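Course assignment 3, question 2. Fill in each field.
Student: A.L.
Task: Predict the tertiary structure for the chain below.
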Amino acid sequence: MAVHHRWNAVVLLLLFTFLTILCFFSPSCLGIRSLSRSGANLKFHHLLHFSEAPDYRNGVGCSSTSSPFTHCDPSLVHVAMTLDYEYLRGSIAAVHSVLKHSSCPENIFFHFIAAEFDSLSPRVLSQLVRSTFPSLNFKVYIFREDSVINLISSSIRVALENPLNYARNYLGDILDPCVNRVIYLDSDLILVDDIYKLWNTSLSSSHIIGAPEYCHANFTMYFTSTFWSDPNHKTTAFGSTTRKPCYFNTGVMVMDLHQWRLGNYRSKIESWMEIQKKTRIYELGSLPPFLLVFGGRIEPIDHRWNQHGLGGDNVRGSCRSLHPGPVSLLHWSGKGKPWVRLDGKKPCPLDHLWEPYDLFKGRREREIHRQQQQFAGFVGSASSLIGWL
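Answer field:
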């Protein structure tokens, strides 16, 4: 009789262990939930859950938007950013910072460019943004990677080869024709100042882009000796400008899309990418083609609008300090990202300035580790009991 009860216990325990294993690998047990908004039921993983941001409202003196609302309203500030699984946490924090410090947050329209074949579909990304910022004015566009994939060459860091890095080259084609001016922002930055100040940057008739310029930087290092030794490149690069070309970071730009479209600057950038495929003239990803077209031909903006390089270099991602002077925007360009370092318990001092804007509540690695420990405990208990039996 005792043996019979023991075998019942073994069967029940094995069944319990099997169901635990099944649950561990089943999406239904990993917390996928269904959210309903505007009649649409969309499911996404709870490990990508973000807290809902405060409902930021316009201050006194803000212009009234047209009724019915349209993103072609001339009173709007247009911001373009990319949106993908890997940098989603950074993008959400960047949007949060823009809204928090804006005098007229309801008059900002975000244009999100999402990859066609990302781990998260544009539809799910849109739902995640909406659930985090319920009153945000935004639109998600699908970036067709095949438009650029054959032009991308290898880089010193694999992340720089992501086709979405090149989406900024196609903003004039992706965004609606009524959008004639846009601020492009990378996903690894935060603003600590009113974006309207950046929006009101004046661009002269000869300048398509406004960005902080760094003429003290070693400009030659961004291109190979093959480039500098070819006299043809020297005469065609940098728009044959008479002014000395200087380095600028493409993560923060005020862009005149009307003039961009008229000048067909997308094709000019693509021409240099085609040369790069045949003869290696640079090592970094999407930055050098921009420099080749616009170096020495941009509207210089105060350095406070791009305190870049906080992610260290492209290899080590070491800690760095701020540049001298006032700060309106902090940019973690480079290998190190604040959310990665914070989660890894190895943050740099400036990463703590990013943290207050982080709305991410899931801790993917921690959750998986906990589930794995639980699973190992179940298996250990089962093995011990079977040995006892």
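Instructor remarks: Residues 231 and 272 are 15 Å apart (CA to CA). The radius of gyration is 25 Å.
Grade: pending
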